[in-house]
Design the sequence.
């Protein structure tokens, strides 16, 4: 036995190694099942799947890509959070700092932004695929609803993040997007029947969103907290439900 | 542990990248991207080394299942394609991020409104709807209907065909409706809003210069005016008749159409609540199309004008 083989054996048979990795890569049916069921991440899957389910043509990989894009934005977003201060004085300067002085600042910002856009596109395509394969039909009706909530949350995540660079593009896009809120019937001051409910510019649906009558520093802080804490948290909870349901209901497919 | 073909390529790629990073001038910008890729490849190497190179058809079936069962083991078959897909997409994203910078314009200035001011691209379909409807309708009511309508799909579609497989033939109407809502309305309005709308939300072809002084004559009139109704009360009554008439007649027409196509028996099975919900949502979707046509072809502003609320 060569020195290399000997060392390898010593390592893989040591107590430390065996306490971490419970089993090797033996290609036996039992071990194949172990690979999935014994791993906390992989066991999101069942240990056996039907043949059609692993084809690209069936899933388009789009649910998985949506999730991957979410993970990418989490990783890059944490990096950005180290250097970004959500106040009107600093936010824009910090963007410049990221771009010109921070090692890989621009790269991380680009990854974060493009992944966010890709996530929006992927989630639409995912929904379209689920529609085309009729995978919302019983017993998966409720998971479709969870999916629609995830779709809305994805858009909100993207929208709240749009404001944070605090440049002309971001405040005006968010202003235009949020102006809808002031037209809400009953609850918005420009909406129908506002005089009945007493909605006014500093006390209506849009002011609630903005944290005041106009877009301003208070809005920045509000959107920052929604973007970095609240919506990711809620979206993660719904994703947990989404994945759990897929496991419980089984993956859709043609009748056997 | 036998080295699979994929591990071999992963190794070659990473060595290549490390060499670029270390020895190519300016290659240092690749350190972090390289790290991302190595992490992915490392995860992959841990998760699925030595995975057989197979396609689903020739994958070895699970031994302990009976005849007629087409199951295969998740590891390595599914895990392997997931990781390869993830590596590929991450690579694309990395290359894209190295080549294209995220935009950053002048610092925010609440007193200087750019013209045009556009919402983020995924909301531009709704902003485009503002051309045709008042903000409370385009910005609040229609989006709510879209979300509620999407959620209602599994409950109003009782066609058992195509549960878990592509079935275009037996789901024609469903697929066409989805296509109309998603591709025609949502996506094409986004494309119009992104590429064809300029200053003043005026229409500019891609080869036209954005002229911020372009003024389009506002010749829009309300529908009641076209029909010779001139008083406020008359307009309210006229509009009410048109709008209610549209929904009542539309519902009746849909009812008869469905009975004709699918038979009375189907209608019984489908039930009134499902039918009413479906026809209400469908007629609302069609009203968007109708209003767009009326505006573009006949310069119609409102169909129903009241002192409080306009359609
Ligand atoms: C953040 C957003 C979302 C994530 C991360 C996500 C993730 C996933 C993943 C990984 C799968 C496994 C199969 C696949 O990749 O296609 C899946 C399945 C499914 N998704 Fe989503 N999804 C999201 C949004 C949605 C939306 C918007 C809908 C529908 C409106 C939806 C409905 C479903 C349904 C019904 C299934 C089961 C499909 C089947 O059994 O064939 N999901 N999702």
Sequence:
């Amino acid at each position: 036995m060569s020195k290399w083989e000997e060392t390898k054996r010593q390592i893989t048979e040591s107590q430390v190694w065996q306490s971490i990795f419970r089993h090797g890569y033996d290609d036996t049916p039992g071990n194949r099942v172990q690979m999935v069921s014994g791993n906390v991440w992989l066991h999101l899957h069942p240990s056996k799947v039907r043949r059609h389910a692993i084809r690209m043509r069936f899933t388009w990989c789009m649910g998985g890509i949506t999730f991957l894009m979410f993970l990418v934005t989490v990783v890059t977003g944490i990096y950005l959070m180290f250097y970004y201060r959500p106040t009107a004085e600093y936010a824009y300067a910090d963007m410049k700092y990221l771009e010109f002085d921070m090692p890989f600042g621009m790269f991380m910002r680009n990854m974060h932004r493009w992944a966010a856009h890709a996530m929006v596109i992927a989630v639409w395509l995912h929904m379209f695929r689920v529609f085309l394969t009729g995978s919302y039909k019983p017993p998966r009706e409720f998971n479709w609803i969870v999916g629609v909530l995830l779709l809305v949350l994805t858009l909100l995540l993207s929208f709240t993040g749009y404001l944070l660079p605090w440049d002309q593009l971001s405040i005006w896009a968010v202003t235009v997007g949020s102006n809808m809120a002031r037209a809400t019937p009953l609850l918005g001051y420009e909406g129908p029947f506002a005089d009945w409910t007493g909605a006014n510019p500093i006390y209506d649906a849009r002011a609630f969103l903005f944290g005041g009558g106009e877009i301003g520093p208070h809005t920045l802080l509000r959107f920052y907290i929604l973007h970095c804490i609240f919506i990711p948290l809620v979206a993660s909870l719904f994703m947990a439900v989404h994945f759990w349901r897929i496991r419980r209901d089984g993956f859709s497919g043609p009748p056997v | 542990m036998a080295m699979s073909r994929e591990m071999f390529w992963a190794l070659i790629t990473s060595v290549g990248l490390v060499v670029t990073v270390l020895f190519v001038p300016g290659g240092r910008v690749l350190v972090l991207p390289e790290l991302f890729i190595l992490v992915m490849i490392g995860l992959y190497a841990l998760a699925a080394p030595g995975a057989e190179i197979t396609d689903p058809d020739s994958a070895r079936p699970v031994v302990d299942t009976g005849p007629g069962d087409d199951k295969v083991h998740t590891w390595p078959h599914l895990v392997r394609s997931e990781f390869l897909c993830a590596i590929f997409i991450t690579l694309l994203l990395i290359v894209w991020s190295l080549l294209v910078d995220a935009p950053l314009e002048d610092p925010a200035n609440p007193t200087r409104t750019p013209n045009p001011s556009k919402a983020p691209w995924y909301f531009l379909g709704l902003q485009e709807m503002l051309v045709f409807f008042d903000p409370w309708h385009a910005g609040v009511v229609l989006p709510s209907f879209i979300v509620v309508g999407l959620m209602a799909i599994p409950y109003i579609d009782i066609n058992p065909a195509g549960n878990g497989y592509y079935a275009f033939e037996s789901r024609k109407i469903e697929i066409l409706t989805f296509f109309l809502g998603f591709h025609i309305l949502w996506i094409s309005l986004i494309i119009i809003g992104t590429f064809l709308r300029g200053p003043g939300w005026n229409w500019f072809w891609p080869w036209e210069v954005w002229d911020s002084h372009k003024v389009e004559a506002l010749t829009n009139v309300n529908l009641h005016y076209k029909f010779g109704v001139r008083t406020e009360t008359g307009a309210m009554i006229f509009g009410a008749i048109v709008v209610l008439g549209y929904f009542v007649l539309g519902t009746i027409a849909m009812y008869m159409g469905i009975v004709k196509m699918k038979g009375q028996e189907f209608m019984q099975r489908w039930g009134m609540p499902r039918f009413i919900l479906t026809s209400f949502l469908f007629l609302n979707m069609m009203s968007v199309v109708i209003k767009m046509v009326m505006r573009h072809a006949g310069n119609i502003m409102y169909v129903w004008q009241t002192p409080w609320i306009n359609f």
The two ends of chain A are 50 Å apart (CA to CA). Chain A touches chain B through 99 residues (CB under 8 Å). Chain A has twelve helices and one strand. Residues 53-249 of chain A form a domain with the Cytochrome Bc1 Complex; Chain C fold (CATH 1.20.810.10).
